[in-house]
Amino acid sequence: MTVDQHQPSSGGVTASRTCLICRTPFEPFMSFGRQPIANAFLTPDQFGSEFFYELKVGTCPSCHMVQLGQHVDPGLMFHEQYAFFSGTSKGMTVHFAELAAAMRERYLGGPDPFVVEIGSNDGILLQNYLGTPIRHLGVEPSGNVADVARAKGIQTISRFFDPGLAAEIVVQHGQADVVTAANVMCHIPDLHSVVAGIRSLLKPTGALVFEDPYLGDIVEKASYDQIYDEHAFYFSVTSLQRLFAMHELEIVDAEPQDVHGGSMRYTVRHRGSGAVSSRVATQLQRETAAGLARDETYADLRRRIETSRDELVALLRRAKSDGKRVVGYGATSKSTTVTNYCGIGPDLVEFISDTTPIKQGKVSPGTHIPVRPYTEFQSRPPDYALLFAWNHAREILAKERPFVEAGGAFIVYVPKVGILS
Ligand code: SAH
Ligand code: TYD
User: What pLDDT shows up at residue 10?
Assistant: First the structure.
C-alpha cells in the first residue's frame, strides 16, 4: 500500500466521544493541542501540507480504558515510508530474542508449531525462529520495514490485521499455537475486531502473548511522551481484563517488562484453558492502590505534565542564555509530543542526532528541528544532550561514557526534569 502521508483524503482523523471498548461516553482529561503525525519526519517542500490534529486523551468512567479522543487514519501513519525500524536498538534485539525463547519453551514445543506475529516490523522477533522447526508468519502493513524482514527470509504479509485476514491465514496455514504482538495492540483503535480475529486464529490450546507500554508506568513517571497518534490506548490489566472477557478470553499472566520506559507482557488464552498466574491478581491490586481507576489520578497527572513542561522549557532557555549548545539524542516518535507540546524548536535544540537513515536529513514533525546522523553528534559534541530516547537510557549512557567524561551532560525529563550528573 502506498499512501502519501501528507495528503489525507478525507480529513484524516476520527473523533471518538464514546469508549472504544464499552461505548460509555467520556471526556478527555487533557489536550496536548495541535500535533503532527509523530513519525512523519519531513523535508521543507512538505511544510505546506503537513498534517495536524488535536491530541487529547481521556479515561472511560466505566471500563477505565485510557484512550485518545481523536484517531489519525492508520494509512497516514503506517505506509511505505514508515520511519520506525525496530532493529535500531540493540537492547530491544536482545529483549525479543529472550521473548522468542520463552514462547518457544512454553507454547511452541508440540508437533508442527506455528506462530503469527502482528506488527512484525523488520523481523526483530521472528528472526529468532529462522532455521528452527517452528513455522512463522509476520503481518506488517508498512511495506518498507516488511521488506527488511523479507530480505532476512521472514515470511511477511503486508496488510493490516483484521478478522478477514485471520480467516485467510487459518485456511492457508492452519490455526496458530502463538499469536504475538509487541507495541502494536495499543496502536489499533478497532481493538474488538483485532481481538475477534486473534480468537479465531488461535488454537484451543493456543496463547496470545503481547506487550505494550504500561499505564502504571506512564502515570507514575508522568511519561506523557508515550501519548501520541499511534498509541490509541494506554493499557492496564484492569481495562484489558474487561475487553478480553467480552471475547471469552482471559488474561492468564501479566509480567512487568523493563523496556520502552516500562511495559507489561500479557498472556491471554481461551477462557478456562490454562492456569491463571497469581501475578494477575497482584497486578490488579497494585492498579487499585495506584488509583488507575480514579479520576483524581488523571487530574493530578495533568498537573504534573504541565509542571514538567514548564521546568523543561525553563531549563532549555537557561542553557541557551548561558551560551550552551543543546542537541537532541534520538528522534523518537515520543519526542514529537514533547517538542510540540512544549514549543521546543531549533532555537532551543540545534539538531537531533539519530542513527536511522530514513530520518536523517529531514526535520522533526511540527517544530522542524533538523535530524542529523550520529556522526555529527560525535564530531561536534554539544554541551548538553537532551535525551529524547530516554527509554534506551541504559544502552545510551553506557555508549556515551566518553561524551560525559569529556564534559558533556544529559538533560532528562522522565521521571523528573534535570541534568544527569
Ligand atoms: N513489534 C515491533 C514494531 C512495533 S511498531 C516492535 O515492538 O518493535 C508497530 C508496528 O505495527 C508498525 O511496524 C506498524 O506498521 C504495525 N501495525 C500498525 N497497525 C497494524 C495492524 N492493524 N496490523 C498489523 N500491524 C500493524
Ligand atoms: P524508540 O524510543 O525505540 O521509539 P519511538 O520512536 O517509538 O519513541 O526510538 C528510538 C530512536 O532513537 C530511533 O529513531 C533510533 C534512535 N537511537 C539512536 O539514535 N541512538 C541509539 O543509541 C538508540 C538506542 C536509538
Answer: 53
